[in-house]
Design goal:
By secondary structure, the chain is α+β, with helices and mostly antiparallel strands. The chain is built from 5 helices and 5 strands, in the order H-H-H-E-H-E-E-H-E-E.
Length: 261
C-alpha cells in the first residue's frame, strides 16, 4: 500500500514539475513573441515613415520642377518681347504669376499632410489633389508656356484609385515639363487609355533627332524625376519605360494596373 502511495506522490511531483516547467516555457514564448511583434511594429512604422518621406520628396520635386520650369520659360519670353510687345510680355508675366500661385497652393496642400490643421480652421487649404480630371488645366498651362500638346483619350474614363490617379497625372506633368526644355518648335502628344484592368499613359515629344546629330537634353537634370516616377509606378505594380526616340524626341510610357476583378 505504501508503495502505491509513494508512487502516486512521485507521479504528482513529476507532473507538477512538468506543469511548472511548461508554464514557464509558455510564458517565455509569449514574451519572446510579444518582443518580436513589437520589433515588427517598430520596423513597419519606420518603413511607413520612410515611404511617406519619399512620397513627399517626390511630390515636392514634381511641383517645384514643373512650375519653376514654366516660370523660367515665361520670364525669358517676357524679357525678349518687353520692349517690342508689352501686351505679350504682360501675358507671359501673368502666366508666371499663375504658376507661382499654383506652386504655393500645391505646396500648402502637401505640407498640410505633415502639419494638418485643426478641424474647423477657416484657413484650411481645400485645393484639389493632382488628378486626370484636371488634365486640361495642366495642358492649358503647358500650351501657354509654348508647347503645343495634342491629347487623346481612349476607352471609358472612370474613377481611378487615388494613388494611380495622382501617379498618372505626375507622369504626364514630368514628361511635358521635360519637353518644354527642348525649346521652340517642339510638339507633344499625350495619350491616356482606359482599360478594364489597367490605365496606360504615353507622352511623346518631337525633340531633336539623334539620327541627324541633334542633341536632345536629358529627360531630367539629375535623373531624379524619372527615378521618382519609376518608384511611384512600382508601388502600384506598374511599369514605366522612358527613352529617346530614334526619329527625334522622347517617349514616356506607363502601365498602371487597376486591380479590378
Amino acid at each position: 500500500m505504501w508503495l502505491l502511495v509513494a508512487a502516486l506522490a512521485v507521479v504528482a511531483v513529476v507532473l507538477t514539475f512538468a506543469y511548472v516547467r511548461g508554464r514557464r516555457a509558455h510564458t517565455r514564448a509569449l514574451e519572446e513573441r510579444g518582443w518580436l511583434l513589437e520589433r515588427e511594429r517598430e520596423t513597419a512604422a519606420r518603413n511607413a515613415v520612410d515611404a511617406e518621406r519619399a512620397r513627399i520628396a517626390h511630390d515636392l520635386h514634381d511641383i517645384v520642377s514643373h512650375n519653376v520650369s514654366v516660370m523660367v520659360i515665361q520670364t525669358g519670353a517676357a524679357r525678349q518681347v518687353l520692349a517690342t510687345d508689352p501686351s505679350q510680355a504682360e501675358a507671359a508675366l501673368l502666366a508666371v504669376e499663375a504658376a507661382g500661385r499654383d506652386t504655393m497652393a500645391e505646396l500648402r496642400h502637401l505640407l498640410g499632410v505633415l502639419a494638418p490643421k485643426a478641424d474647423g480652421d477657416p484657413d484650411e487649404d481645400l485645393s484639389p489633389q493632382p488628378s486626370l480630371t484636371r488634365l486640361s488645366e495642366l495642358i492649358d498651362r503647358i500650351a501657354f508656356a509654348g508647347l503645343p500638346v495634342d491629347v487623346r483619350i481612349s476607352g471609358d474614363p472612370c474613377a481611378l484609385p487615388t494613388g494611380v490617379d495622382v501617379t498618372a497625372y505626375r507622369i504626364i506633368q514630368e514628361a511635358l515639363t521635360n519637353a518644354l526644355k527642348h525649346g521652340d518648335g517642339v510638339k507633344a502628344e499625350v495619350t491616356v487609355r482606359y482599360a478594364p484592368h489597367a490605365l496606360r499613359v504615353e507622352v511623346l515629344n518631337s525633340g531633336p533627332s539623334v539620327l541627324t546629330g541633334g542633341r536632345a537634353p536629358a529627360p531630367d537634370g539629375d535623373g531624379r524625376g524619372l527615378l521618382g516616377l519609376k518608384q511611384r509606378v512600382g508601388v502600384y505594380g506598374g511599369q514605366l519605360d522612358a527613352r529617346r526616340r530614334l526619329g527625334g524626341g522622347f517617349r514616356v510610357r506607363a502601365k498602371l494596373p487597376l486591380g479590378r476583378p
